[in-house]
């Protein structure tokens, strides 16, 4: 066994700079019918998907920066199977984030810090733009509303197909990050994206909404 002597303080700093632990929920709304085939790794209904994927961080840190309570939205045109990549994305960062928090979020979700978020970022073929915008996220178990001021507007309701009236759920999907956690199935009442300056403007009512607990961690 070879043992290499290192500067412990420098190593600890480098490790902290590349680490993250983010916990909260992932909310997806898109052009697919209920429920979204992309979420289980199948091709989208129309051969392409027009979606928003929102990460609301109930608690978390990236590069040692506390990002609890913030949201980030990936507005994406997905040209085929989601897992095949090639997404064309606009990233919307919660305007409540200060510069350090925004930079930490973009480094993590942009794949610069490595780990599982780098795998997720690799699906994006082009980041068209990054916008700072007020985000309202009032969502629980695929029920509620999402708004990125002037850019995204959505209301959604759960699918209550169970005999007892509880929300329909899905387990063990391609995008599950919390083992054993349910993905709650819903349907959009209203879903609008208005980003014509970036070639993104669409409207789909009565289509897919799905929300699931979400967690990613990387400690190099």
Kindly describe this structure:
This protein has helices spanning 8-17, 99-109, 116-121, and strands at 20-29, 49-62, 65-66, 71-78, 87-94, 124-133, 135-140, 143-148, 152-158, 169-170, 183-195, 200-203, 208-218. The chain is mostly beta strands. It is globular. The relative contact order is 0.21.
Beta strand %: over 45%
Structural class label: mainly beta
The count of β-strands is 13
Mean pLDDT: 91
Q: In terms of quaternary structure, what is this?
A: single chain
N- and C-termini, Cα separation: 21 Å
Helix content: 10-25%
Poorly predicted runs: 1-15
Rg on CA atoms, Å: 18 Å
**How many strands, what sense, and barrel or not for the largest sheet?**
13 strands, mixed
SSE string, helix = H, strand = E? HEEEEEHHEEEEEEEE
Shape: globular
The count of helical stretches stands at: 3
Features:
220 residues, mainly beta
């Amino acid at each position: 066994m070879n043992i290499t002597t290192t500067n412990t303080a420098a190593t600890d700093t480098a490790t902290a700079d590349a680490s993250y632990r983010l916990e909260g929920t992932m909310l997806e709304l898109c052009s697919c019918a209920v429920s979204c085939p992309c979420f289980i790794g199948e091709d989208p209904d129309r051969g392409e998907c027009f979606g928003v994927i929102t990460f609301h961080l109930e608690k978390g840190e990236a590069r040692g920066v506390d990002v609890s309570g913030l949201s980030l939205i990936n507005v994406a045109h997905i040209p085929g199977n989601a897992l095949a990549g090639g997404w064309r994305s606009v990233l919307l960062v919660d305007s409540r984030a200060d510069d350090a928090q925004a930079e930490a979020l973009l480094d993590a979700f942009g794949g610069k810090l490595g780990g599982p978020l780098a795998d997720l970022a690799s699906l994006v073929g082009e980041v068209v733009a990054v916008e700072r915008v007020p985000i309202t996220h009032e969502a629980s178990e695929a029920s509620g509303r999402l708004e990125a001021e002037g850019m995204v507007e959505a209301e959604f309701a759960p699918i209550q197909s169970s005999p007892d009236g509880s929300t329909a759920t899905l387990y063990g999907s391609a995008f599950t990050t919390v083992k054993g956690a349910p993905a709650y199935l819903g349907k959009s009442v209203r879903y609008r994206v208005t980003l014509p300056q970036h070639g993104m403007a669409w409207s789909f009512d009565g289509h897919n909404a799905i929300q699931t607990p979400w967690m990613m961690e990387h400690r190099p």
